Amino acid sequence: MANTNDIFTENLNLLIEHSGLTDENFSNMMGFSLRKLKYLKNGKGSLKVNELEKISSFFSIKNINTKKINVEKDLRLKLIKTHVKNEEYITSLREAPTIVYAIKIVLLDEGIFKNPIGVKEIKSFFKQRDWNYSSSAISMALTRMPDLIKIEPHPSKKGSFVYSKR
Q1: What is residue 4's predicted lDDT score, i.e. its pLDDT?
Q2: What are phi and psi of 96, to 5 degrees?
Q3: What gap in Å lies between CA 88 and CA 120, rounded to an integer?
Q4: Distance (Å, whole) CA 148 – CA 49
Q5: Which InterPro entries does the record match to this protein (predicted)?
Q6: Residue 1 burial by Cβ neighbours in a 10 Å radius (0-12, 13-18, 19+)
Q7: What structural domains does the chain harbor?
Q8: 68-113 pLDDT, tens digit each
C-alpha cells in the first residue's frame, strides 16, 4: 500500500498538470518557493498544515494526501469558475496553459489527429485558443510524449515530421 507522501505526490502532480498552471505560477499562488514545489513534486520535502489546507482549498479537494484522486478533464474550467473573484488566481488561470496541458488535455481530446498532421496545423489549432507556442516548443513537447504521440517523417517535406495519436 502506498504511503501518504506517495499519494500526495501523485495527486499534486496530476492536479497541477490538469490545472494547466506552470510550476512557477502555482508555487507563487500557494505562497511557497518554486524550489519547495519541485521537492514536493518529487516526493521530498514537507508542508505546513496551512500550506496543505491552501492547496486542498484551491483544488476543492478534501483528501489530497490520503487517497488517490480521479482528476476531471475540465478541472481548469472548474478552477476558473471557482476562483473568478480571486484576482491573484484568476490572472494565472487565464494565461495560456502549459504546453503539456495543451497537448495532453486539449489537443489529444479534440480528435484533431484523424490523420497525421504537422506542427503548423497544431500551432494553428492552439492559436485559435489564443495560445501562442513556438513551433520548436510544440515539436519538443510532442517528442517528449512517445507513449501518446506517434512521430513519422513527413511524406513530402524532407526534414519535417507529422504527428498522430498512438
Answers
A1: 56
A2: -60, 140
A3: 34
A4: 37
A5: Lambda_DNA-bd_dom_sf
A6: exposed
A7: 4-94 (no CATH), 99-165 (1.10.10.10)
A8: 888 888 899 999 999 999 999 999 999 999 999 999 999 998 888 8
